[in-house]
Amino acid sequence: MSALYNGGAYGAVAIDQEDQGPKVTVRKVGSDKVDFVLQSCSLGFANAVRRAVIAEIPTVAIDLVDINTNSSVLPDEFLAHRLGLIPLHSRGVADNLNYTRNCEYCDDHCDRCSVTLRLRAKCTDEHNILKVFASHLTRVDDRADSIGQPVIRDPNGEGPLILKLRHNQEIDFTCIAKKGLAKEHAKWAPTAAVGFEYDPLNKLKHTSYWFEKDPIEEWPVDKVNAEWEDADEQADVANNPDAQPSAFFFDLEGVGVLEPDEIVEGGVKALQLKLTEILQSLNPGQDGVNGMNGVDAGDDYEPMDQQPYDAGGYGGYGATGGYGAYQSGY
Ligand SMILES: [Zn+2]
């Protein structure tokens, strides 16, 4: 049970000084993971936070690939798909990069709504193959921040392997990375996994366990979470059909494009933006809601048919992989 988390700049999950509003307790935090408990809120709110951190936080990923040369053994579309999935640093994307669909400075893409990366490699060694890594992607603009730089974590500083070239094989790609959301395509997901649990002892009976012989043995209880809950508070839920869960246990793992604290703050901010939009729709004449003046509610997701997705005029490949499935399945 470590220090309370103050909810960052947004304050929606502020320290619960007067037993009012949601309370967040961070139990464990690492470079990519955070384990926290959310209390004093409804199941619906906790689940909204879960969904927001999975799919509502803007990040940057390669979206268009202009293939100038490709004499490798891999087809263009395959490489475009691989490039789309390479994690790119996304700190500050929410505030410092426009969505191309909302960008007022361009029709296709520009420095305010995209980051350009170049990938050029040729194998000149007759006897050895050349491995091309994400670290070979070079940003070709003069941004001062790290947005769009490949995330390199391995000890050799190489990043994910993209392809291998044999003698005289060559590639020359120009990649346009854009801001997007995971609900458009999974390549923009900031999280790899979000564990979510409440009522670890299943006293509320919200869950019916499927089992072969023994549900207790086949569904092990998370002891840390089970001990966290106040046994007395939950003791009589069997006799109270209106009993509510008292704590929600999150175990969030990022993919490296954002720090865990940015992911949680980003999720809360995404929820705030949505609520602001609803309130502003209900009161169209009102500027700002509940002290949230200046929130750019327009900087959010728009339906698929309004997006310049896979812009054909650019002549590049949509680095989306399976975009057909995305369109039909959305
Ligand atoms: Zn633009």
From TrEMBL:
Pfam families: RNA_pol_A_bac, RNA_pol_L. One of its GO terms (molecular function) is DNA binding. It is found in: Nucleus. Keywords: DNA-directed RNA polymerase, Nucleus, Transcription. GO terms for cellular component: chromatin; RNA polymerase II, core complex. The keyword Nucleus applies. GO terms for biological process: transcription by RNA polymerase II. Residues 33-281 form the DNA-directed RNA polymerase RpoA/D/Rpb3-type domain. PANTHER family: DNA-DIRECTED RNA POLYMERASE, DNA-DIRECTED RNA POLYMERASE II SUBUNIT RPB3. Belongs to the archaeal Rpo3/eukaryotic RPB3 RNA polymerase subunit family. Component of the RNA polymerase II (Pol II) complex consisting of 12 subunits. This is DNA-directed RNA polymerase II subunit RPB3. It comes from Cyphellophora europaea (strain CBS 101466).
